[in-house]
Structures are given as C-alpha cells and as structure tokens.
Amino acid sequence: MNIEKLLHMQLKLDQHIESEHGLGEEDLVDRKILALLVEIGELANETRSFKFWSKKGASAKEVILEEYVDGIHFILSLGLEIGLQEIELDEKHADAKELNEQFLLVYKAVTDFREERSVTHYFSLFNHYLTLGEVLGFSSMEVFDAYVEKNKVNYERQEEGY
Ligand SMILES: O=c1ccn([C@H]2C[C@H](O)[C@@H](COP(=O)(O)OP(=O)(O)OP(=O)(O)O)O2)c(=O)[nH]1
Fold first, then answer.
1. Which Pfam families does the protein's record reference (predicted)?
2. Quick one: which H or E segment has residue 155?
C-alpha cells in the first residue's frame, strides 16, 4: 500500500477541513483520538463480532470497509499531528488475533498513544490497525482504493456545508 500517497492526501484534506472550520490554531489531537475510538466502535458494530446475544450477521463487506477506512483517516491525521512526514511500516504486522481480541488490542494501542504521543506508540497503533484489516479480510489494495474513495466523499461533504 502506498502510505506516502495516503499521508499526502490526508494532509491536504486536514488542511482543507481546518481552514473551512477556522481551526488553524487549535490542538485537535484529543478530539481526533476520540473520533478514532468512536470509529473503531462503529466498525465493531458493523461486524457484530462481539454480539454473542444475537444471531444477526455482519453488515456487507463494503459497509465494513468504509468504516475501516474512516479509522485510517484519523490514524494518518494523528501521524501528521505528531509531525510525521513519512511512514515506514513493517512488512509483517503483529501476529493476528481473533477478531474481538484484535479490536481490544487496537483500543489499547489508541489509549497508549494518548498517554505518550511517541513515534513508537504511533507505529504500534498503525500496525495493530492494519492487522485488524487483515483479520477482517481486506487486501492492501482494497484498503487503498476505499481510502481514496472516502477521501473524495469527505471533500464533497465539506463542500455541502456538512
Ligand atoms: O480532520 C479531519 C476530520 C475528519 N476527517 C474524516 C475522517 C472520516 O473519514 C470522516 C469522518 O467520519 P464520518 O464520515 O463517519 O463522519 P460522521 O460525521 O461521523 O458521519 P455520520 O454523521 O454520517 O456518521 O472525516 C479527516 O480526515 N480529517
């Protein structure tokens, strides 16, 4: 996956959103962290993986993929917040766990990053999130394409005064 390209697209989108909403001077990190936690919750809800009380199945793959790439947006955006200009990810991510376990690992990685905004914690978060994508059955190309598509939608929503 061409992370450099995504990071650049994220930079442009974030600049656009910040100027639209007059947020140039504000520290948005905590709100982006909360937004990411909410997106992970929305993603988990669409998979229904933890709903042991229900027999209803998961949402369609495209719905789950769109939720997943919302999380990619906020993770890239957090990388920009800590000043990253390039992202070099491990070829091989952390060992994949069962889906619910992987969700909980990602949540923990987000809160660890909040406690210490270090590059190490950031990469750990990104790697756990990419592993989550693998556990969900998404290829890198599917993630890349869905990111590009949602990025476009995010611009359209800004234009609509969303
Ligand atoms: O600084 C920002 C702020 C937001 N986004 C993107 C991430 C995500 O792709 C989208 C917000 O998520 P979503 O589309 O779910 O927005 P929502 O307001 O929660 O939508 P809805 O009301 O449809 O649930 O905006 C960014 O990339 N950078």
1. dUTPase_2 (PF08761)
2. helix 140-159
Query: Quick one: which atom of ligand 1 is closest to the CA of 10?
Result: 27
Residues 112-139 pLDDT 10s: 999 999 999 999 999 999 999 999 999 9
CA 80 – CA 8 distance, rounded (Å): 9
- Ligand 1 touching residue 6 (CB < 6 A): no
Domains and CATH numbers, the chain: 3-159 (1.10.4010.10)
67 ligand 1 Cβ < 6 A: no
- What's the pTM? 0.96
- Write the secondary structure of 74-110 as one string of H (helix), E (strand) and C (coil): HHHHHHHHCCCCCCCCCCCCCCCCCHHHHHHHHHHHH
Distance CA 44, CA 9 (A): 26
